[in-house]
Amino acid sequence: QVQLVESGGGLVQAGGSLRLSCAASGRTFNTHFMGWFRQAPGKERLFVAGIAWSRDSIYYADSVKGRFTISRDNAKEMVFLQMNSLKPEDTAVYYCAASTDPYYRTTYVNSNVYDYWGQGTQVTVSS
């Protein structure tokens, strides 16, 4: 089992920044890829950004490219999401997820391939 705990959410004005953190523990050696997803009320859960533990594979949703940056600290088993130039449409619950799929390069946007999820952290951007 892998446990994921997110932190760093909150309320921010449009144009502001937040940094989300995801701490992983447990059998993390089985996981290949870490993703951030978000879910707004009444909407489906969508891929935001993802990063591989062992390769320089990083992916972003078009909606956040140039504004969000994902990074990792392998030694601390943590993944971060730096969110700049936030917009009201970024308001959602943000989830950290871990995938054991070795073929993540072709599946990373699909929430179904992630095996472990955090509890989520609320991000609210006011206009």
Description:
With 127 residues, the chain is mainly beta. The protein has one helix at 104-107, and strands at residues 2-7, 10-13, 18-26, 33-39, 46-52, 58-60, 68-73, 78-83, 92-99, 116-117, 121-126. The mean pLDDT is 95. It is built from one helix and eleven strands; from the N terminus they run βββββββββαββ. The chain is 3% helix and 50% strand.
Structure keywords:
mainly beta; 7-stranded mixed sheet; 4-stranded antiparallel sheet; 11 strands; 3% helix
- Give, in order, the helices and strands: EEEEEEEEEHEE
Oligomer: single chain
Structural class by SSE content = mainly beta
Using only CA atoms, what is the Rg?
Answer: 14 Å
Percent of residues in helices = under 10%
Low-confidence segments: none
Count of β-strands: 11
Q: What fraction of residues sit in β-strands?
A: over 45%
- Molecular shape: globular
**End-to-end gap:** 40 Å
What is the residue-averaged pLDDT? 95
Characterize the biggest β-sheet.
7 strands, mixed
User: Number of helical segments?
Assistant: 1
Could you outline the blueprint of secondary structure elements for this entry?
Elements: E1 2-7, E2 10-13, E3 18-26, E4 33-39, E5 46-52, E6 58-60, E7 68-73, E8 78-83, E9 92-99, H1 104-107, E10 116-117, E11 121-126
Parallel strand pairs: 2-11
Antiparallel strand pairs: 1-3, 3-8, 4-5, 4-9, 5-6, 7-8, 9-10, 9-11
